[in-house]
Amino acid sequence: MIQTAIRNYLSATGHTTLNIKAVMFDMDGVIFNSMPLHAKAWVKAFAECGIKFSGYQVYLNEGRTGASTIDEEFLKAFGRHSTTDEQREIYHIKSGFFRQMPAPELISNITDVVDFLTKNNISRTIVTGSGESTTLDRVEKLFNGQFRRELMVTAHDVTYGKPNPEPYLMGLRKLGVAPNEALVVENAPLGVMAGVAAGVFTVAVNTGILAKSDLTAAGANIVFDNMLQLLDALPLLTKN
Ligand code: MG
Question: Can you give the pTM of this predicted structure?
Answer without folding.
Answer: 0.94
